[in-house]
UniProtKB/TrEMBL annotation:
Domain of life: Eukaryota
SUPFAM superfamilies: (Trans)glycosidases
Any one GO molecular-function label of the UniProt entry: hydrolase activity, hydrolyzing O-glycosyl compounds
Homology family: Belongs to the glycosyl hydrolase 18 family.
Name this polypeptide is given: 2S globulin
Signal sequence range: none
GO biological process: carbohydrate metabolic process
Length: 276
């Protein structure tokens, strides 16, 4: 899976190399519960990914590659200069109902298959209003359940990182049955070598199920870099962890090196697949 469209670069789906023998998820960044100036909208989400990712281009990449799915990622770090944070809605059930209606409309107009949950901040600037993480778990868990049981979406993923593990563990603990993958942002742990990556993966697999946990890579970013990432994947395999996928952030940055990590990750995953 790969994030796309969050940085303003006029990126397109069709330039990303896709092997037809693997499940490939594009995660569009981001659908945000905010007005263009960053004011919360009580659960009414709008798409803020780059305008080159049109509904027609989603339809085209999916018809060219039937193994492609497209997901809308919820929130992300910021909208323009405004840092986004989870807020406890006054009326959680009204928030869920607004979120359901707005996401249903986005999913239908863009022909999407799912959502990714990427709330990244849970406290106000001065740490004064510390939200109740069980409200986050309730709102997001019920929203995913409803989107799935009304067959609006078929896939749901979550993207915790080291400072947000708490609220995501609450969510996962209560709603694991409707969460398909945990694309944990391993690069935020800033581990630089395969051995350290394995230790971190082992820790995160005690917090989320190992079978749903995906190793991840930030192109030109933090954490493990270069081919050491593939050493880490091999070490995970040798240490008894099935590598069931990879998350890459992001297509926006990858165009510069001709999608080296996308190509190599897909080759690695296909090579390590045991055909039963
Ligand atoms: C958090 O929310 C839950 C469910 O709404 C409630 O039972 C609990 O008392 C709340 N905790 C705090 C500290 O407000
Ligand atoms: C769908 O999920 C919602 C939220 O959890 C729940 O209230 C509702 O009963 C479910 N409906 C069906 C048909 O399972
Ligand atoms: C595929 O697997 C073989 C045997 O484990 C290994 O020698 C080779 O380097 C792998 N290729 C890739 C692209 O990972």
């Amino acid at each position: 899976m790969e994030y796309i469209g969050a940085t303003g670069v006029p990126v397109t789906f069709k330039s990303v190399p896709i092997d037809d023998n693997i499940d490939f998820h594009f995660i569009l960044g981001f659908a945000i519960d905010a007005s263009p100036s960053g004011e919360p909208q009580d659960g009414t989400f709008s798409p803020y990914w780059v305008s080159t990712l049109t509904p027609a281009s989603v339809a085209q990449i999916k018809s060219r590659h039937p193994n492609v799915k497209a997901l809308a990622s919820l929130s992300g770090w910021s909208l323009g200069d405004k840092v986004l944070r989870w807020y406890d809605p006054e009326d959680p059930d009204r928030w869920i109902s607004n979120a359901f209606a707005s996401l249903k409309s986005i999913v239908e107009s863009y022909n999407l298959d799912g959502i990714d949950v990427d709330y990244e901040k849970f406290h106000s600037r001065r740490g004064r209003s510390s939200p109740n993480s069980s409200t986050f778990a309730y709102c997001i868990g019920e929203l995913i359940s409803l989107l799935k049981n009304q067959t609006v979406i078929s896939v749901a993923t979550i993207a915790p990182f080291y400072t947000t593990v708490g609220p995501y563990m609450d969510l996962y603990g209560r709603y694991r049955d409707v969460i398909d993958y945990v694309n944990y942002q391993f690069y935020t742990d800033r581990v630089r070598n395969a051995r350290g990556f394995l230790d971190t993966f082992r820790l995160r697999s005690t917090q989320f199920d190992a079978g749903k946990l995906l190793p991840s890579y930030e192109v030109g970013g933090r954490g493990i870099q270069g081919d050491a990432f593939f050493d880490a994947l091999r070490l995970l395999g040798r240490s008894g962890f099935g590598v069931n996928g990879v998350m890459i952030f992001s297509a926006d940055a990858s165009a510069e090196d001709d999608y080296y990590y996308e190509r190599k990750s897909q080759a690695f995953l296909l090579n390590s697949t045991v055909v039963l």
